[in-house]
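Retro notes (design track)

What went well: tokenization of the new backbones is finally stable.
What didn't: we kept losing track of which sequence belonged to which structure.
Fix going forward: every design gets posted as structure first, then sequence, in one message. First example under the new rule, 142 residues:
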């Protein structure tokens, strides 16, 4: 689901927490060595997500936040901030000339550049968290 998180809204926060869990505590975040990625350049997005991208030739930025049950992709459009929630069981990641994150027919493609390389360890952590979640919930999709 896509939410406008520019301003704090208790109902939106509750929906996000219900979908992918509450944010990690400070101690858990330290143990995981961080739960957020660095800012990356969005190269392309699915038509359903184009509405939250800058229409002009501005650079679109996004970052990823880990949650116990999934991820949040934060996208900045001007002064507004949108958050796309993806539960781990819907998350699909492709590495093709950058990183592409897919869920329920929507996708965001992050450009291959220096910031993507700096987030290499973050993506390893993300995949490890997804595997841990699937093992815990015994999700075999075969």
């Amino acid at each position: 689901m896509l939410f406008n998180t520019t301003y704090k809204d208790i109902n939106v926060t509750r929906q996000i927490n219900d979908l992918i869990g509450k944010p990690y505590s400070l101690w858990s975040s330290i143990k995981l060595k961080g739960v957020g990625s660095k800012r990356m350049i969005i190269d392309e997005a699915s038509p359903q997500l184009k509405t939250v991208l800058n229409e002009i030739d501005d650079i679109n930025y996004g970052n990823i936040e880990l949650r116990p049950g999934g991820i949040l992709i934060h996208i900045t459009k001007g002064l507004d901030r949108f958050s796309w929630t993806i539960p781990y069981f819907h998350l699909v990641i492709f590495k093709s000339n950058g990183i592409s994150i897919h869920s329920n027919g929507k996708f965001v493609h992050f450009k291959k550049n220096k910031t993507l390389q700096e987030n290499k360890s973050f993506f390893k952590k993300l995949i490890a968290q997804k595997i841990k979640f699937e093992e815990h919930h015994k999700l075999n999709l075969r």
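Added context from the reviewer: The two ends are 26 Å apart (CA to CA).
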